[in-house]
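hi! just following up on the protien thing from before. the input was this:
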Amino acid sequence: MSNTWILVADAGRARLLELADSGRKLSEVACYTNPDARLPGKESTTDRPPTVNESMGGTRHAIEPHTSLREKTMERFAHLLNTALERGREEHRYESLVLVAPSRFLGALHGCMDKPLRDRVVEEVHHDYTALSVAELRERLPTKLFL
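and the predicted 3d structure came back as:
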């Protein structure tokens, strides 16, 4: 059996679809959400920035974090999806993988993927199609997937 999994995701939600050989019908396998990604900017940060002590004396300085809280939640969500994809690969539930996500989120996914999982990726679509129905998604995906 040569199944293809299609991950349609952004930083806030993801849908995992399966494209089976028999009939080439798309069916939804799982759905994931990241509610922290939908918080307005001021709600996703703390009241005060972190501080550091001066090496001489008792002075403290505010510092900017290297990554924002929004980026951290996006990376956590990418790791969650990576775990689901890895589990499916280990259980031999699919042979090939298609990633459909905005470029920024694709970068987060690539950052947590190991080589065996990256080797399963046969196609990438750099768009946010998370709000599309299965029928609309089928129209927008490359036709070579359905041959």
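The beta strands are 4-9, 13-19, 26-33, 51-53, 60-62, 96-100, 121-125.
The longest helix spans residues 69-90.
cheers
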